[in-house]
Amino acid sequence: MAKSKRKPKKASVSANRVAELAGVSRSAVSRTFTDGASVSAETRAKVLAAAERLGYHVNHLARGLIHHRSGIICLIVAEMQTPYQAAFVDMATRRLQAIGKVVMVLNATGQPANVEAALRQTLNYRADATVVVSGSPPASLIETCIENGQRVILINRDDAAAGPHVVMVDNDTAAREAMLMLRRAGCVRLAVISSTAGTPSIIARERAFAAAAQEQGLEVQIVRAGPTGYAAGADGARQVLALSSRPEGVFCTTDLLALGFMDAARQEFCLRVPEDLCVIGFDDIPEAGWLGYNLTTFRQPIEEIVSQIAQILETEDEEDTGPRCLPVQVVWRRTVRP
């Protein structure tokens, strides 16, 4: 059998070859591809023509590492298939690429240790910064990243460790407002449908809602039926709506939980929303506005969160690490009685 002949791999075109073809110095090639560097129009034209002919591309990674900057920004995200996370990754990658960053998305779905492993991986790639969207990495590991010259930006989690930047939304105010909205609708028996994820943002919503209800002299049943998602919301409905004293008002800590809860309430318990039961969600995912749900919810300002991330990356002020807390907006639809 005849052996197939493989073509030898071509080496990448070097700046020296471009300089030789253009008849200029190696430094002239470097200046041509450096923003703001001084180079004559004639030299620039020669270099660009030679680069085009040879198929030359600047090695930005090597150039960046010389200046201790790789231009790489890592996003650590879990459950990217969920509508909120998908929307966040989409907007964040587009915005960061627009300001000249190379975005590396690391999937941390699964065990909590996956977040720690992903953060360690960012050190191997000498990332300029890591944005932790999901999970809570150990404070010691965050400190290690910072000591290695990497910025760490935590999303929706207030961290006690010194050094990381924090961008979060005002979960407390939103959850308290959710309780008051249900109370104004005449709801006395209240419940929170949450998940077993135990993320700082979800826990903050649970606690703030319960604290606001306690101030009104009301008790709240908190149900964590499973991982954050549609199925857990439906299971939560089965747990609380089968009781003789079922709740009149329900706050779901995410919209996906709320959608599952509402479908089970309507299909399995024949309840009407909002006539028999008022429901409020959190996130304002696209599905929340579908006619079949019309869910009253709180909108996470994804665009503003991403803008804050870009602002942190574009500034050199390492001391500005205080939490940036953004307000959330209530979106009134038809799952709460007027």
UniProtKB/TrEMBL annotation:
<dbReference type="GO" id="GO:0000976">
    <property type="term" value="F:transcription cis-regulatory region binding"/>
</dbReference>
<dbReference type="InterPro" id="IPR028082">
    <property type="entry name" value="Peripla_BP_I"/>
</dbReference>
<dbReference type="InterPro" id="IPR000843">
    <property type="entry name" value="HTH_LacI"/>
</dbReference>
<feature type="domain" description="HTH lacI-type">
    <location>
        <begin position="18"/>
        <end position="67"/>
    </location>
</feature>
<protein>
    <submittedName>
        <fullName>LacI family transcriptional regulator</fullName>
    </submittedName>
</protein>
<keyword id="KW-0805">Transcription regulation</keyword>
<dbReference type="GO" id="GO:0003700">
    <property type="term" value="F:DNA-binding transcription factor activity"/>
</dbReference>
<keyword id="KW-0804">Transcription</keyword>
<dbReference type="Pfam" id="PF13377">
    <property type="entry name" value="Peripla_BP_3"/>
</dbReference>
<dbReference type="Pfam" id="PF00356">
    <property type="entry name" value="LacI"/>
</dbReference>
<dbReference type="InterPro" id="IPR046335">
    <property type="entry name" value="LacI/GalR-like_sensor"/>
</dbReference>
<keyword id="KW-0238">DNA-binding</keyword>
<dbReference type="InterPro" id="IPR010982">
    <property type="entry name" value="Lambda_DNA-bd_dom_sf"/>
</dbReference>
<keyword id="KW-0678">Repressor</keyword>
